[in-house]
Every structure is written in C-alpha cells, then in structure tokens.
Amino acid sequence: MRNTLPMSSRTSPISQSITIRRAVAKDAKRLTRLVRGSGAYEGKYAAAVEGYRVGPDYIEAHRAFVAVGADEHGGRVLGFYSLVLAPPELDLLFVADEAQGRGIGRLLVAHMQSEARAAGLDRLKVVSHLPAEDFYHRVGAVRTGTAFANPPAVPWDRPEFEFRIPSE
C-alpha cells in the first residue's frame, strides 16, 4: 500500500509529496540514524538509543514502512514505523526532527492503522517515550497504563497506550 500526501514545509513554501512504502534492507542505516539522531532522545534519554540499530533483519521480520519525501536525490526518509503483529504492537515510530509538525506522524499512524486492519487486528499496544505522550493522545491512542522502569535499559516509567482499530 502506498499513500501519498502533498505536504508543505514550515521552512519552505515548496510543496513536497510524501510517499509511504515498505522499508527495505537498504533503508536500515538511514532508519538507525533517524533513531539515534532523534532530538526526543537527548540528555537523560540518550542512553535509550545509544547503540540502537534498525538492521536489515529487523526490517525483514516486521512490517516496517517509511515516509519518503520527493527530492533531487530520489527520496529522503522523513519518518518510519514498525508494526509487530504478535503480540500486536506499534514498536517504533519516528519522524525526523526537521520534518516534525508537518503531519507526517499523523500520516504514518493512519497508514499503520490501515495495515493493522488489513492484518485482522482490532487493537494494538504502544509503549510511548515520555516526550511523545501528547502526540499519541492527539492521534487517538487511549492511555491504558504504565510500563514500569527496567534499569539499566530504560530507567524511567513510560505511558502505555492502545490504538483501537475500527473495522471499515
């Protein structure tokens, strides 16, 4: 499934087309850089993504999709998500810092919900990073609890959400 959406940049009046496509092995390094370079994981959160890797094996094992912006280099990864079917969970969702605030996260969530529906899911869990909590509220996720700290990997509690996937 490919979704496209004309997007306008906050910093440029030029309209840009966004395409969502299945991630492929050659995207692994770009996705890893996106995770490790996320401004949401600076300061006390940096340890959570230090050394994190989105490898070709991960991309093959999960339903990973990328949002690509058209540019002179044939497309730039602006964000991505990964859907795990068993147990149903949105495992990763990242939007490049410079692309935030343009609706790309909302577009990725809508695509994820469509993929979940096609897979027969009626709900799925998200364990959110604290700075992303408001985003999940805005895109319709319902807070269901708390994932408690698991030091040293994750030394802080995180909000748990659920997306309810309505049938069409």
Structural account:
The protein has 168 residues and is an alpha+beta fold. The chain has four helices and eight strands; from the N terminus they run E-E-H-H-E-E-E-H-E-H-E-E. Strands 1-2-3-4-5 form a five-stranded antiparallel sheet, with helices on both faces. The chain has a three-stranded antiparallel sheet with strand order 6-8-7. The two termini are 16 Å apart. Mean pLDDT is 88; it is low at 1-15.
**Envelope shape:** globular
Question: How is the main sheet built?
Answer: 5 strands, antiparallel
Taking pLDDT < 50 over at least 5 consecutive residues as the criterion, the unreliable ranges are 1-15
Question: How many DSSP H or I helices?
Answer: 4
- The largest sheet has its strands arranged as 1-2-3-4-5
Structural class category: alpha+beta
What amount of the residues lies in strands? 25-35%
Helix/strand order: EEHHEEEHEHEE
